[in-house]
Amino acid sequence: MTDSKLELARRNSAINPDADMQLRDSKRATRLSFFISGFALACWAPMVPYAQSRIDADSATLGSVLLCLGLGAVVGMPTAGIVSNKVGSRPVLIAGAVGLATVLPFMAAMANPIILAIALLLFGCSIDAIDVATNMHGAEVQNLAGVPLMSGFHGVYSIGGLVGAAGMTFLIAVGPGVLAASAVASLVMIICIVCAVPGFLKTKPASDGAIFAVPRGRVLAVGLLLMVIFLAEGAMLDWGAILLTSKKLEVSFSGSGYALFAIAMTVSRFVGDKAVERLGESMMLVVGISVAALGIIFAAYAETVSVTLAAITIAGLAAGNIVPILFSLAAVQRSMPAPQAIAATGTLGYAGILIGPALIGHAAEVIGLPNAIAGVGILAIVALLLIPAISFRESTIASAH
Q1: What is d(CA 165, CA 173) in angstroms, rounded to the nearest whole number?
Q2: 112 φ, ψ to 5°?
Q3: Whole-number Cα distances in Å, 389 to 31, 56, 272
Q4: Confidence class of residue 193 from pLDDT cuts 50, 70 and 90?
Q5: 250 and 128, same structural domain?
Q6: How far is residue 332's CA from residue 248's CA, in Å, rounded to a whole number?
Q7: What 8-state DSSP symbol labels residue 399?
């Protein structure tokens, strides 16, 4: 009997190290995937003024071109979901990362607005493919681990955004040009995906159910709020650099605005759970949206670069935990099944990314860029009226993004 127990212990000791190693590798691969997703999108922000100059575009034309980034995301989301459900998230993750690394240098070199629009469309598809597949893979790894991991994974996404914005701004400022900087960024993504591939799980998602559904009930209110917040974040991503250059900041440093925004969001997300525990979800949403909106409005109308950067930083601090709270609320409401609710909420959110850049660009042609960006802040304040339609829990939120 004792010998049998010893034999079982030996077998367990032989198996468990492999299982632990697989889980450790899978965690690392998931973190690298989240890093790539945040990094790639943030790398685009400092490149926007150069793209506008190359294609000689006014605000309306640039807005129409930027629309393709959001359109690509909307196309990529359902496609990535369907493919991931059929073959698993691993191939989609690899394809998305390779797509991002391939397209980014083209976006830095294209002088034709149509070709740039096509590149942005492909970039948007790749961004959303890796975003959807990474979240699915993260859920699989979390299930395998048996402990919550998603909040930490999304924290790495924020770090990727910080590194991408700050790194590209630095490389453009001190390096030979935006094309060389984009090539370095592509190399970083290739290295990350090569390191991640061995750790990707090869299992398929357990559910073959519907990925997307029409939002209803409280999910609709949550989704509309998310759309407004994504629109605001998109304003900082696509138009923050243009706003700063209009205030006489040297173009090579114009990406510093989104870099500060990303830093602020990253910091706020790592302390967000404790803040929610003290203030509650409802108060965090009211305060977060209000302060973020005021920060955007002050950034739009500030007369100096330093005040503009300070306002952008405050907006980032306030906005950082809004998205985690909204996704968490979508997961616990009872109007719809949680997976469908999260997908439907995300779809509405990406609608903000789709329409935001074009709306701001065309509005800027009529009322000026500061008024157009301030309009986003005003819209966020109006969106506060949706908060009473959302039910809140008493317990602390575990951040979901």
Answers
A1: 12
A2: -100, 125
A3: 35, 45, 23
A4: very high
A5: no
A6: 47
A7: P
Q: How far is CA 381 from the centre of its chain?
A: 22
d(CA 325, CA 282): 9
Q: What is the pLDDT of residue 373?
A: 92
Q: Tell me the one-letter amino acid at 260.
A: L
Contacts of 369 (CB under 8 A, 6+ apart): 59, 239, 242, 243, 246, 300, 360
DSSP string, 199-215: G---PPPS--S-S----
| DSSP H or E stretch at residue 57 | none
Which amino acid is present at 175? Answer: G
Query: Amino acid identity, residue 29?
Result: A
The CATH number for 32's domain is 1.20.1250.20
Residues 244 and 192 in one domain: no
The rounded distance, in Å, linking the Cα atoms of 89 and 154 is 17
Triad 308, 312, 316: Cα angle to 5°: 170
Residue 66 and residue 156 in one domain:
yes
Question: Would you state the structure tokens that stand for residue 103, as one six-digit string?
Answer: 């397209």
Residue 255 has pLDDT above 80, yes or no: no
| CB-side neighbour CA atoms (13 Å) of 40 | 35
Closest by CA position to 39, among listed 115, 123, 110, 116? 123
Nearby residues of 67 by Cβ (< 8 Å), 6 or more positions away = 354, 355, 357, 358
Q: Are 83 and 92 in contact (CB under 8 A)?
A: yes
Domain termination residue (choose one: 206, 239, 267): 206
Q: pLDDT (tens digit, 9 = 90+) per residue, 379-399?
A: 999 999 999 888 654 333 333
CA distances 171 to 163, 190, 238, 341, Å, are 11, 18, 19, 40
Cβ neighbours around 115 below 10 Å, total: 14
* H helix count then E strand count, the chain: 14, 0
**Residue 6, pLDDT score:** 39
Using the structure block, give the residue that is written with the tokens 């994504």.
230
Angle value at C-alpha 44, between 42 and 46, nearest 5 degrees: 90
DSSP state string for 23-51: HHHHHHHHHHHHHHHHHHHHHHGGGHHHH
Residue with tokens 């090579």: 252
* C-alpha distances in Å from residue 217, one per residue of 177, 351, 386: 50, 18, 12
Look up the domain containing 162 and give its range: 1-206
| Nearest-angstrom CA–CA distance, 166 and 263 | 9
* Residue (of 190, 93, 169, 103) closest to 132 by Cα position: 93
